Structures are given as C-alpha cells and as structure tokens.
Amino acid sequence: MSSADEDGLAELLQSLTVNEFDAVAMELEALEAIYGEGTIGLFYPSHSAPSSLDGDALDRKGAASALEEKERPRWTPGEKLRIDVQTTLPEPYPDVPLHLLVTLPPTYPDSSPPQLQLLSRYIGPHGVDSALFGAVLRIYISSTDGVEWTPGDVAVYDGVENVRERCGRWFGERKSEELAGEMMREEEYRVRVEEHAAVTKVAAEEAEAAAPPARRQEEPSSPAELPDGLIITSTPPIIFNKSTFVGHAVKLTSPGEVPLVLNYLLSDRKIAKATHPIINAWRCDGANGVVHQDNDDDGENAADVLVVVTRWYGGIHLGPDRFKLINQAARDALELGGFLDAPEPAGGKSAGKAGKGKGGKSSKH
C-alpha cells in the first residue's frame, strides 16, 4: 500500500469514528486484517485518476500515489461511502485476483444494506458475463443464494465471501468448458489425417472378423494393471450413424500415471481396435501457479484430471457432428466422475472426486 493510500484509510477510519460510525470503522478495519494490508481503501473513480491511467484497469494503489493531496477523494458524512476491495478467489484458485466495489449508503447499517459491484472485467483469462455481474449486484436482494441482511447488523464480509465463492464456481465452470474445447480442437486437427485411413481399417477388421478362429492372432486376455487407488469412470456408449463414442475420466495423483492410464485403456483389445482409441486431454495446476497441460496421446506429465474419448468409426462420415459427439462423451465422463460439480465454500474440500458415476462404470485395480 502506498503512503497516500495508508493516510487515506487512516483518515477515513478516524472520520467514521468521530462521526459516530464506529460499527462501519471497525468493520473496515477487520476486513483489512482478514484480506491483508493494502486490500481495503477508498474507491478512486476513473475521472479522479491521472489521464495516463486506463479506467478499466485502474490500480487504486498507483492512483493514490499519483493524485495530489488536494485531489484525493474524501468521504463526507451524509454521503455514500465507496470502498475498493482487492482480494482473490478462494481455494482451489487463490492466485486469481478479484476486484470489488462496496457501496455503503448513509443509513448503513441501521436501515439500508450495502451494495456490491464486480469491478473485474476478467477473472483469469475469462471475460465476466452479464449473468455473473447481475448476480453480484443482487447479493443482498436474492432470497435463494444471496446474503441475509438484518437492519443494524454489518454485512460486508458475508457479501464479499459470497461473491468470492460465487466467482470461484463460475471460474471452475469456465475451466472445465475450456478443457473440453481444447480436446475437441485437437481432435479436429488430427481427424483430418486419420479419417482418410478409417475406411480401409474398417474393411480389414471386417475381414478379420470373418476369418476362421484358427487364423486369428492370440491376444491378451486381461488388461494391464493400474496403480492402487486409481478409478476410471467410463460413460455409456453414444451411437450415431454406426459410429460409437465412449468417454473416460480419471483423477491423477502423480505424473507417471498419465501413460499408465493410457496404456491400461489400450490393453483392452476392444479399445485398441477402435479407429481413434485414446483421444485425450489433461491439465495440471502445479506449484507457484504454473499450469501444465497436454493434448497428445502419450503425454508424460501429471494431470489433475485426464479425459479420454474412444471412437469406433462405423463407415459413415459424420462431418462436423463428430466433434459434437466427442465433446459430449468427454463432458459426460467429467460429469459422471464428479469433475464438473461446483466447488464447496472456502475452507472445505474442493469438488471433483473421481468415482463411479450414475449410468456409467468404474475400473479399479
């Protein structure tokens, strides 16, 4: 926090106390103790900042040090109090910043609730949509998932925590959609080359199936072993124009398990004979905010979630529908495995435990 900002907050707390707004002063002081030094202060509107600063990405700390003493906004009793809150999303995304505006009416907390507004236009790489923006504005109005306010009680902390958890769920959903989309784009690139040989492979499989049993090559009768604790959730097949799609999802605990899972699936002779046996994508949120990801069939790094789609080509070209079906099989696997569930509130265990999903099956060795 800049010295100008420190002086501004200290001056605000003193002014609130002098004017008998002790409850508000104590609440703001407690918020800074909870969220950290420099996270709470007077809001600096864009028109008060130097012209060289961008209003959309206005940094309250930089603006405070750039403003002259006479230009620095102050609170006057009887006016709305506008507080700038800079915090982050809760676990499992504590490194993603979140910027909020808290407006306190002159009659708060006696007869009016506070109002929250989302100042962040992006949460991580994802642009904030109107639904999330509106939900934040209605935090103290909604009777279903908002914050209950009682006249006379301070409620800013409860509102900020509600917004943090709500934005954390929203961010997790965007990440899941991004993972499925990456897998679909990668498959679209590969299929341009692979589908050329698909018809020939189908003909060869039909010829092998029609051959006498003595001519067929002996194949392994049991699949490879999986490490203890790994559970693969598989979806019921999606059949469209003779093509079949099955999704698989698994929660990983170490880097070496990615090839082990892929090899395990390939050891199933039915999967190994598929036209596209292990279309896959995975992502790992590593230490210090480093994100590891891969979309190759033989990735070697760990992943929090590995999603695999197996496709058996039926001899009829599906066109763009094949990508929708691949994406659907992947999403079904994520849902059955519990990876698309909303995360629990801050302090609890995050959602997404792999397990046996409804309507699907799980493999465990």
Report on the architecture of this protein.
The chain is of the alpha+beta class and 365 residues long. It is built from 9 helices and 13 strands. α5 packs across α9 (321-336).
In short:
The protein is of the alpha+beta class.
C-alpha termini separation: 54 Å
Shape: elongated
Number of strands: 13
- Category from helices, strands and their pairing: alpha+beta
Which runs of at least 5 residues are low in confidence (pLDDT < 50)?
Answer: 47-58, 296-302, 344-359
| Beta fraction | 15-25%
Radius of gyration, in Å, reads: 28 Å
Main beta sheet: strand number and arrangement? 7 strands, antiparallel
Q: Note the total helix count.
A: 9
Order of helices and strands: HHEHEEEEEHHHEEEHHEEEHE
Report helical residue fraction: 25-40%
Mean of pLDDT: 77
Which key features would you list for this structure?
four-stranded antiparallel β-sheet, 9 helices, alpha+beta, single chain, 365 residues, seven-stranded antiparallel β-sheet
Layout of strands and helices, then pairs:
Layout: H1 3-18, H2 22-35, E1 40-42, H3 60-66, E2 81-88, E3 97-104, E4 115-118, E5 122-123, E6 126-127, H4 130-137, H5 156-194, H6 198-210, E7 231-234, E8 238-240, E9 243-251, H7 257-266, H8 269-272, E10 276-285, E11 291-294, E12 305-312, H9 321-336, E13 361-364
Antiparallel strand pairs: 1-2, 2-3, 3-4, 5-6, 7-9, 7-13, 8-9, 9-12, 10-11, 10-12
Helix pairs in contact: 1-2, 5-9
